[in-house]
Each structure stands twice: as C-alpha cells, then as structure tokens.
Amino acid sequence: MRRWSAKGLRIVLIGASLLGALALPHIFPTTLERHLLVLIAMNVALVASLDLLIGYTGLLSLAHAGFWGIGAYTSALLVKAGFPFLGALLLAGGVAWACGLALGYPALRLRGHYFVVVTFIAGIVITILMNVLSGLTRGPHGIPGIPFASVEIPGVLAYTFNPFRDKLGYYYLVLALALLVLWTKERLVRSRFGEALIAIREDEDLAQAVGIPTHRYKVAVFALSAGIAGMTGSLFAHYVTFISPESFTFRESFDLFVMNLVGGAGSTLGPILGPAFLTLLNELTRQVHPAFSEILFGVLLILTIAFLPQGLVGGLRRLRTRLAPAVASGLLTPERSPAGVPNAPPGEATPELTPSRSDPNLNALLSSSSQDPPAEKGTALLRVEQVVKDFGGFRAVAEVSFDVRPGEIVGLVGPNGAGKTTLFNIITGFLRPTSGRVLFQGQEITRRAPHERARLGIVRTFQNTKVFPRLTVEQNVRIGCHLHPANVEGRTEAILCLSGLQGSRHKAAADLPYGEQRVLEIAIALGAKPKLLLLDEPFAGMSPAEAERCMTLLHRLRELGITVLLVDHHMETLVRHCDRLVVLHHGEKLVEGRPDEVKDDPRVIEVYLGRSRQRRREREAEGRRESTHERM
Amino acid sequence: MSGCELLLEDVSVCYGRVPALQGISLRVGPGELIALLGANGAGKTTTLRAISGLLRPRSGRIRFGGGDLARLSPAAIVRLGIAHCPEGRQLFPEMTVLENLEMGAFTRDDPEIAADIERVYALFPRLRERRHQRAGNLSGGEQQMLAIGRALMSRPKLLLFDEPTMGLAPYLVDEVTEAIGQLHRQGISVLLVEQNVHVAFAVAERGYVLENGRIVLEGPIETLREDERVKRAYVGG
Amino acid sequence: MDLDILVQAVLLGLFNSSVYALVALGLTLIFGVMDIADFAQGALYMLGAYVAFYASQLLGLPYFLSLGLAGLGMAAIGVLNYLLVYRPLHRVGGATTFIAALGILLILENAAIFRFGADFRLLPSPFGHAKLALGGAVLTYHQVFTIGMTGLLLGAVWLFLQRTKMGKALRAMSQNRDAAALVGVEMHKVALLTFTLAAALAGIAGALVSPTRAFNPTIGGIIILKSFAIVIFGGMGSIKGALVGALIIGLTETLVAAFTAAQYSDLVAFGLMIAILLVRPQGLFGGGGRTA
Predict the structure, then answer these.
(1) Sign of CA dihedral A260, A262, A267, A269
(2) Worst-scoring range by mean pLDDT, A89-98, C140-149, C221-230?
C-alpha cells in the first residue's frame, strides 16, 4: 500500500519520537549534553503550558516565569522544612494554580493590550515580592542548598534522583513531566473544553453568544497553565539547588514567549521544536558572550513575526507542501491548522440555500422547544419591560416595552440610529440597561451574562458578521453545538444540510463569500438549540436572491418551533415576512402591531415613510407641471 | 473642467481573500452629481475608500484628471482635488470646530484659507456659533456639517460623500441635502453614497447600483428609480 | 520634623516625576499616533545616558552639548527602529509591534552590555555636588536643573503641538487616523516626526539623569515599564494623562519610600497601576477621545 492511513503513520511517528527521547541521553552522554537535555525537557513543559494560553486561547501572558518561580520557591521551602519531594511537587503546582486563579479572575476581564500589560506587571510584582518578603524567601540572597529530588516510599521503593551524580535519572524525571504535559495538552485541545478555547481565540463575543462561559474557561486554562509552570518550577529548584528572584524575572517570561513563537504557537510540535532549538542556541552563543544569546533571541523574535508568523512548524509545513504533499500529513498538520485546511473537492455540490425537508428528526436535533411543555399561545416568550439605556447624556433607548410570543417572527424596525442594535444587545446580555427589565419565559434575565442566556435558549447573530474565521465551516458549526454535547456529529450534519452549507464544509469561514458567511452565522447559532433566535440585519450584504433564500430558511426554522426576532431598517423586507413589527424611532417605541397595520399607521408614515411619500407626491406633481428636472 | 473627470476601470478590492469589489467601472464627469446605490455590504464604502487611497485596489485603474491614483497616498490624492467626507463623520474630537476646519486646509498654503472658513460658516451658520467648542461635543447634525465643511476646506474638484444623512433628524436631512445640492451647483463634482434613497433620488443626475461588489445597473436617476433591482436593494423605497 | 521629610519627599518626587514625564510623554505620543507600545524607548533612555557619558568623558565635550548629542543620537536610532522594524510590521498589526518592541529593547540592552559592560557608572555633574537648601529639604543643583529642563522641554513640546502645522497634524493623527489621511496628512512624515520627538525626549531624559543616578545597561527596562504603566494609568495616547500620571506615580514612590521603606515603593506603584487597570482600564483621562 502506497498510502498509509494517517492514524497509523501518526502512531509510528509518536512511537519513534518517544524512543528517540528515551535514547537521547545515551546518544549524548556527557554531563553538559545531559544537562542541556534536562533544560530542554523543562522548557518543553513550560512552553507547552504557555502554548495553551498563547496558541490555543489567544491570551498573551508575560507572567509565566512568575508562576514558575512561585512553584520553585514553594517546593524549595517545603522540602527544606522536611516535606517529601513528591508532595512538595504537587503542592508547588497547587500554589501556583491558586495564584493563577487569583490573578486570572480579575485580569481576564480585560482584553487585548490591557491583559498583556497586567500579566507583565504581575510578573514583575511577583519577583519584587520574592525580594521584599525576605523573612520567607531570604530576599535577593536566594535559597541555597535545596535538597535533591528524591522519591522514597518506605519499604517499597527507595530511589534517589541525584542531579549531580545522575543527570540521566533526572532527565527521565523531567521528561516524564514534559510528556505528561504534552499529552494533557493534546487531549485538552481536542476536547469540548479545548474547542471552546479555540472559539475564544477566534472570536470571544461569538463564543459567548453560543453559550461558552468565556471568562470561566479563560480563568480555568490560565490557572491550569500556571499550575503546570509551578510543578516545573519545583523540578527546577531541586535540580539547580539554588534559587533567587533573579532566576524568575520578566526576562525568563520573555524567553519562554520567544520559544513558543519561534517554535510555532498553537501546534503540537511547536512547543518541542522551539525550546529545543533555542535552548541549544542559547548554550552555544552564551559561550561567546552572555549578552549574545539575548541579542540573538531578540533578532530571532523579530524575524519570526516578520517572516514566519507560524514559527518553525509553519515553516516545516510550508516546506512539506512544496516538497512532498502526501508524506507525513498525520503529524505535521495540526487538527485545526488554518493553513492545513484543504479546500472542498471540486465535484461536490454547490451551496444550496433551499433547506431540504427530508429529515424528520430535524426538529429533535435542532430545537429544544420540543422538550418543554408547549407554551400557551399568547404567553410571552420574551418580555421587554420599560427598558432604558443612557450613554452619557444620550438616551439611546427610552422606556421600550414589547413582547415576543412563541412561534412568531417579529421584526424590530427603525431608521439607522433608532436604537435597534442597542436594544438587541440589552436583550442578549451584551449591554446592561440603565433601567427596566428583560424576561424570558417569565424569568427575569436582566442581569444574566450572554452565555447564560444562550443556555436558556436566547441565541444571536451580529451586525458585523462574526464567524470563527480561521476554522472550517464544519468546525464553526461544531463549536456552535458546544452547549449540547449529545450527538454533535448528527446535529452538525443536520445543520449543514438545513443551511445548505455542506458543499463548503471544508473551507475556512473567512474564505466564504459574504452572503454565505451570514448564513454560516445563523448555522452556528442553530447549534445552541435556540428557542429565540435574534438576528441583527441578517440580509445586509446579501444579494436579493440570497436574502430570499435566507428568509425561506427562517420560515423553515419557525416550522421547527424556533421563534425569531429580526432587526432591520428596511421596512418592506420585514413587512413581507414578519408576523408582527415593532417600530423604533429615536430610541422610543413608536408602534407595534401586524405588518399591514403598522405600514398604514399614520405615525409610522409620518416619521418613517412619510417624507418619502410626501416627496414622491411632490415630485410627481412637479413632473406633471414641467418635464425639466430640478435637482433639489 | 475636463481635468477633473473620475474614471474607475475594472477595479477590484479584496479584504484578505474575500473580494469586496469585483471589477467595477464607473465615471463621474466634471460637474456631475452621481449616486452610488446598493444594500449594506454591497461595496459602496469600499469604492470610496479605494478612490481616496485608504484602500489599495488589487487590480484595475482609478484615474482622475488623466493621472492614475492607484499608487498615490491619500494625501497626494487630496492635493489632486478629491475630498472624502467619510461615513460616521470622523472628526478630530478633541480639536475645536475651527481647528477641524483648519485641518481640512492642511494641504493648502495660500492666504485665502480664512476666507474659505468664512464661506463654510456662511453655508452652515451654526458652525460659526460653535467655532471654539470641541468637535466631540457637537450634536450629530452639527458634526455632519463640520465634516462637510472640513472636506470643502481643501477646495476639492470632486467630493465623495459617504452616508451624509445617516442618523440625522428629518429636518437636518433636508438641510444637508440642500447643502450638497448647493455645492454641486457651484460646479463641484459629487459622488454620493446614500442609504436614504430619497436623498439620492432628489439630488443625483445619474446613478450606479452595486450588488455584491459588482455594478449591476447604471443610468439616469429617473430610470433607476423605477427599476426592480433598485427597489429590492432599497426595499424601504 | 515630619514636615521636613514630607517636603523633601515631595521635592524628590518632582525630580522623579520629571524623568517619568519625559519618557512617558514620548511613549504616549507614539501610542496615540501609531498604536505601538514602544518599549524600545527604554533602551534609548539608557543609551542617552551612555552617549552623555562618553561625549563628556572621552571627547571632553561640555555636559550641555552632550545633552543635545544624546537627544540627536537617540532620535536617529528611534527613526531607524521605525523604518526598519515598525513600519514593515505595521501591516501585521495587533500585538506583533509590541512584541517587536520588546525584542528591540532586549537587543539594544544586550548590545550595550556587550559594548560597555554591566558596571554601574555615574557622570560628574557640571554643577558639582552643590546643594540647594529649601527650608528643611535639600536638592542638588543638578536635580533642580533636571526639573527645570523638563519643564522647558514639556513647554516646548506643548507649543509645538498647539501652534505648528506639523504639531496639529500629529494631534489629528492620534485622534483619528483615517480622517487625518483624508485631509491630506502624510502619515509617514508624522510617524517619523513622532519617533524623532519621542526618542529625543527619552535620550535627553537619560542624559539628564546620568549625573544623579548611577546607570548600567539594564536601567532601561524598569524605567520604560513604569513609564508605560503611567501611560496606561493616564489613558493610552493622552498627553495630559501621561503628565498627571507621571506626577502621581513619581510622588507616590518617594512618599512611600520616605514613610515606609524604599523597597516597598515599587510594590505600591505597581499595585496602584494594577488596581487602576482592573477598575478603569481606559485610564484616568482615557475614554472619550485621545490626546488633548
């Protein structure tokens, strides 16, 4: 057989790598070589844990060396006080984990620049604390004479890892930790939790909208990463036997960061290649002059972000596609690599928006309404009560109240700037109203977070199309199913089929035409089994034909028991397709009622259509009087 | 006046790999007022940004007065006589009204700037009253007037308007529409992007309809008004 | 007695704030105009001290001339950073320029270690050790000179930004980049100007302080970190915010050092910054718009 199965190849390659890692200290038996191997293994563990943040969640943390140091100090102090090594190792992880939790909880409310800066300052505060708390840490003098790591279980096992006499043993100890971390990481990023992290990296708002508790997940992964760094710190302390605040400065965080980036963030091999390459480079250059290696790190970092944004792994991948496209596709292509996403085979069906009605189970698969007792006709599914929103002195929404009843398609309409999107954000939890209440199925939800509302069944799309851009269409829909882990495969298929996106399933979402991206948005939302689907200007950017097909899809959803609330500023679209309209004007509710009523309501005609009709009448009169065209 | 004809020839623009404009061609003759119509996301703003140099076309040519704009910086394009009055007003919020107008004359170095500021005040008397206020503290309508005034300060031969009446109260819509017509009568060519199709119908001579980054229709404004595709793009009509 | 300590701390705090103000001002200008958190300014501060040191010690130039030389030399390096690194990377956007800035800081710092060694140095002040007694408090003439020079420089920058066409262009670009482009501001020129100005300020700051505080190649990291924190504290891109922030942090440090112990001053300063960030991430003067 010429083509091995990807899985088989993968197993063989992993096995070979493992054997290689075990054999390395025998191939390179000198003390220095083994010392380097220990350092590399340690850095692999550190960088792999950092990669969970940087590569998978998109969180740039510069506090990693701080947590590493916290672990080192914890373990050193405990063992010096007579604690057994293994317990100290676990406690080191635990303390660092707790510190990560304490920092992450408030800091992860910040996004972008601000989060980076807080971790940066926090890393420095940690080293300052190591210096200042001299009663505990002996300040700048550091802690000398830390006992070697030893594992002794009385009567059963008595073996001491001694780093000086036996670097080999220590290498295997650190290697075990590194492999454990790598394995955990691989398992994690392929789990439901890991998918959610990637969703956060790709678009945090959208992740929240489909019910992912983004803050909680970010705190969890941040603390986990800190905990792993802490355990590595313990191994470090008992290896070098002397630690001081100098070992855990910002510089170290930065080096780890460079290793992650140069190796390739968000990949399997990156956190192995990066540390291996840079640790060796560091060793070689520091013999020339200690400043040299740091200069080289800086240069490499700049070159990497300029020319190799996906690091060494990205470079290798490019090389592979150029040289031998078929070889080793198993190992080098990370599951969710945006670069490795193959395009759909040309023969497949072109996207067809007309939903197929062939699957009788769609209802069960898509909607959660069926599980609830059928609501009485006339009871409000959503109730907006006297909602007010002020921005500074500007009142964007003024005491608006209306109901949405189960099974309706309701349109929220008004000219640009009428407060539609603000109200929309209040209903979905992305904004808090200044006053007033929002109720869903009789339950007050005014203060609930967006992801909690998604859990209740309120799911939205965004005005500026949001999808997970670097993931495939199929992965996008899968992530949409996050809230309901049962039968994700089946539901993903059903949704792809319903929305007519099967033909594009392997394309990256960012590569879809705009109209299809908007359909994908709705498809993602369907995964969360909405009872109430809120669509913010879904037809914007669609051709009339696409808009028509999209409307057909919405009617099909209504048949499946999903209630729809639409925002648009085009009155006519909504008049044709909605059961009821709510007209907003300057933040106030002007009129509410059936489309034909609303269309002919004198107030609506006056402020919304009036001017145009009036104008048209004037123009027609003019046209009769004289044929010359007047511009004003 | 023949020096200020704007010609787009087969212009394509992409955001990343997603095409926003796919080979559009259009012409704004000297002294013409042309409307560019289309739904949200059809590529109207992209077209204006490509003309004023904020975006680089992937292919095609944009010519103004005979020269090719494709390689020029936005500043050089302003100096050629094209002023872009962007969507959402885009003022310098911490500067005063007067400073904003002065910034509008940034490319100029002649003694008539003060007189031109007076001319803007004459067009929009409310700006004179507020000349020492921060632009960020103005009301929406006043900000729009200031944005138009600032665009005028470069003494443009061609004005690009992007949704100048968006979010304005009806009487202000009329006022802004009036001002655009007045400028046009003074001989300035105008390319107008407007969601409020009535404004476009009221002032424009010819129009182009964009759909998914392509021009699907062009012609005299009277013809466009009756066309089904326009009605669909602006279903509110 | 306590009052004397207070006055002394406030005066030292003013001196301390002067240094922060110069570096933070440059940083906030660059951030406003280019959206880059240019940590490499820290290295320019450090190199400014070395330029002053070698100009006056080796070449025998008068101190005041070497101040100017430090400003000029650093302006050149600042511009090089922009042309060689930031400008090509600006397309990529996001955190990349910030990371690149850290890279440059690291490179320059270690190049300095390689060239000058890690020893601490101190430049003799042209005013000698003369001290000025103000009530119960004492400042050296050089410290007073530093405060005065800072006032002068800040005033000059303020006039430049308010009165000149290029200054206004700089403010315009920091308030709204697209709008600035649309009125004909040459982005590239303004960017060059901003880097020149900021780098010169950082270089002069380093040179100004070199006779008062011992320096070695690693001083840039801590000063830029604090200046950056000050910029965030005041609102990124806000000039007023940077100056008020510099004053608050500078005074807090000396006051904490005077009334508790010196090692706590950093802790309090950083703690304050984190607290501000968590409560009000847009900073004291951030929010509405940028750059007064």
Answers:
(1) negative
(2) C221-230
* Residue reference for tokens 């035409």: A513
Tally of domains in chain C: 1
- The top-scoring range by mean pLDDT among A318-322, C224-228, C280-284 is C224-228
Q: Which domain holds residue A167?
A: 28-249
**How many whole angstroms separate alpha carbon A335 and alpha carbon B106?**
52
Query: Per residue in A363-407, pLDDT tens?
Result: 555 655 444 544 455 578 888 888 888 876 677 888 888 888 888
* DSSP sequence for A550-590: HHHHHHHHHHTT-EEEEEES-HHHHHHH-SEEEEEETTEEE
Choosing from A201, A227, A249, the residue where a domain stops is: A249
Q: Which of B41, B184, B222 sits opposite A541 (nearest CB)?
A: B41
C156 in a structural domain: yes
Report if residue C5 sits inside a domain.
no
Does any domain span residue A320? no
Contact B17 A542 (CB under 8 A): no
Least CA distance to B85: which residue of chain C?
C182
Q: Facing residues of A402 across strands? A: A384
For chain A, how many structural domains are there in total? 2
ipTM of the complex: 0.87
The answer to whether A128 faces chain C, any CB pair under 8 Å, is yes
Which candidate from B181, B211, B234 shows the least CB-CB separation from A543? B211
Enumerate the residues of chain A whose CB falls inside 8 A of the CB of residue C92: 305-306, 309
Residue A545 in any domain: the answer is yes
Q: What is the pLDDT of residues A480-503, one digit of tens each?
A: 888 888 788 888 888 888 888 888
Instruction: Give the domain extent around C208.
Output: 14-218
pLDDT of residue A631: 33
Q: Chain C partners of A295 at a C-beta cutoff of 8 Å?
A: 106-107, 110-111, 114
Contacting B residues, span 139-158, partner chain A, CB-CB under 8 Å: 140
Question: In angstroms, what separates the C-alpha of B3 from chain A's closest C-alpha?
Answer: 24
C-alpha distances (whole Å) from A510 to each of A101, A206, A208, A516, C260 are 34, 15, 19, 10, 57
Q: Are strands B33-38 and B206-211 parallel, antiparallel or unpaired?
A: parallel
C290, part of any domain: no
